[in-house]
Amino acid sequence: MRRPSLALGLAVAVTALTACAAPAPADGFPSSTAAPLTRFAAEFLGATTMPAPEATVTPAAGTWDDVVVPAGFELVLITSGEDPAAVTVADAVRRYAAAHAVALTVLPTRDDDDVEAAIEQAVAAHPDLVVGAGDGVVDVFALLTAQHLDTPFLLVGSQLPEPTANVTAVVWDGAGFRGSGLGSAHADPDAVSPERALEAMGAGVTAVLHDLTGIVLDLG
């Protein structure tokens, strides 16, 4: 009996594997988000499974207070604007970094071109987290963060309209800007207090440390 050639057998095998293999998600989210959460993550989110991508979740207040940031954690802060809300958020990030012995690099920006350059500089440094402070970073973050899925990003007091899996946001009443032309108001300086901004920073870093990313945390 004549046997099929080795080349034909390999071709059939490759075709079968290709047909079965699913393409990698372009947004960085896993194909299934129904995996059970760890005990802490479940307490933090008030849920038993990972929220759907881009979901808005209200974390349990205070669950992040005793979270320990790993030694050697490196953070890059990209700031934009000198409005009171942006300054308050940036100051909160500095306070958080000092309190948790986090290595902090600050990249101030003045316009969209500066924000773009700052993102590229931050990504090249391979930090553990890049934080955006100020509504002025949102439009450029929306365009560029999807190009750097291996870099975690955090927005404090603002959010992206369509975040990828590497972008987490913390918002609250009066601080939830979603980008130009989307009908969302800029942050209310009266709502962005030092205490609220510091609380948001703690919640956001906690989410990133526990791989609860690609979602929006709403502090209410």
Please outline the helices and strands.
Elements: H1 6-20, H2 39-45, E1 56-57, E2 74-80, H3 84-99, E3 103-109, H4 112-124, E4 129-133, H5 138-144, E5 153-156, E6 167-171, H6 194-209, E7 216-218
Parallel strand pairs: 1-7, 2-3, 2-4, 4-5, 5-6, 6-7
Helix pairs in contact: 3-6, 4-5
Q: What kind of sheet is the major sheet?
A: 7 strands, parallel
Spell out the helices and strands N to C.
HHEEHEHEHEEHE
The number of helical elements comes to 6
The CATH class turns out to be: Alpha Beta
Round the Cα radius of gyration to an integer and report it.
20 Å
pLDDT averaged residue by residue: 88
CATH fold title: Rossmann fold
Second CATH tier, the architecture: 3-Layer(aba) Sandwich
Beta-strand content bin: 15-25%
Shape: globular
Q: Give helix % range.
A: 25-40%
Keywords: Signal
InterPro entries: Peripla_BP_I
Protein name: BMP family ABC transporter substrate-binding protein
Organism: Xylanimonas cellulosilytica (strain DSM 15894 / JCM 12276 / CECT 5975 / KCTC 9989 / LMG 20990 / NBRC 107835 / XIL07)
